[in-house]
Design a protein that fits this description.
The protein has 194 residues and is mainly β. Helix content is 0%, strand content 53%. It holds the Pfam family DUF1349.
C-alpha cells in the first residue's frame, strides 16, 4: 500500500521539508550522517530518517530523485531496529560519481557500492526483510529489479523503515521521495528480477 509521508516519525528532522499526497521533499542539514566505528573510528547518528513501523517481514520500496554531486551525498531507504542495528541503502556519491550503496550495521558498519546502472539522479530502491535475510534491489524504472545486496539482519517482531538522506560533507542537498510503499515480503526467487 502507498504510504502518506505525513504519518511518519522523524529521527533528526530536517529544518526544511514538505510532504503532500505525491511525495516528500527535504533539504539536508549540515554534516548529517549514519555510521558506526568501522575504518573511521567515529559514530554518527545524525542523518535524516522518516520512520514507519513494520511487522517482522515486509517489502518496502521508494523512488528517489536528487542531484548527488558532493562526496558522500546520499539518499534512499533505511531499516532500523535501534542506533546499533540498522541498514541504509540507495545512492551515495564517492570517488567522483554516484554509486548504489549499502551500509549494514550490527554494532559496526560495513559498506558496499556497485553500479548495475549509472543513471542515479532518479531511481527506485527496494528492501525485503524476512526470516533474518535482507534482500536489497534497485531499479531504473520500477519494473526490473537487479539484486544489490543479500545480507543477514537480526530477527525482530517489528522494524522501522522509511526514507533517509545525509550529507556528511555539507548541507543543502534537496531530495524528492515518491512512490513509497510497504507490503508483505516479496518471496520470489533470488534471481527473479521482477
Amino acid at each position: 500500500m502507498d504510504i502518506d509521508f505525513n504519518d511518519g516519525k522523524w529521527l533528526n528532522e530536517p529544518e526544511s521539508w514538505q510532504a503532500d499526497a505525491t511525495g516528500l521533499t527535504l533539504t539536508t542539514g549540515e554534516k548529517t550522517d549514519f555510521w558506526r566505528e568501522t575504518h573511521y573510528g567515529f559514530t554518527r547518528d545524525s542523518g535524516h530518517f522518516l520512520a514507519f513501523p513494520t511487522t517482522e517481514s515486509f517489502t518496502a520500496q521508494i523512488r528517489v530523485q536528487g542531484e548527488f554531486r558532493t562526496l558522500y551525498d546520499q539518499a534512499g531507504l533505511m531499516v532500523r531496529l535501534d542506533e546499533k542495528r540498522w541498514v541504509k541503502t540507495g545512492v551515495e556519491f564517492t570517488d567522483g560519481e554516484a554509486f548504489l550503496s549499502t551500509v549494514v550495521t550490527n554494532g559496526q558498519s560495513d559498506w558496499s557500492v556497485s553500479q548495475p546502472f549509472r543513471q542515479l539522479d532518479d531511481f527506485h530502491i527496494r528492501v525485503t526483510l524476512a526470516a533474518g535475510a535482507l534482500r536489497i534491489q534497485a531499479s531504473r524504472d520500477g519494473s526490473r529489479w537487479p539484486l544489490l545486496r543479500l545480507a543477514p539482519f537480526p530477527i525482530a517482531d517489528r522494524y522501522e523503515v522509511g526514507p533517509t538522506a545525509c550529507t556528511p560533507e555539507r548541507s543543502g542537498l534537496r531530495v524528492r521521495f515518491s512512490e513509497f510503499s510497504i507490503g508483505p515480503a516479496i518471496t520470489t526467487d533470488l534471481h527473479d528480477l521482477s
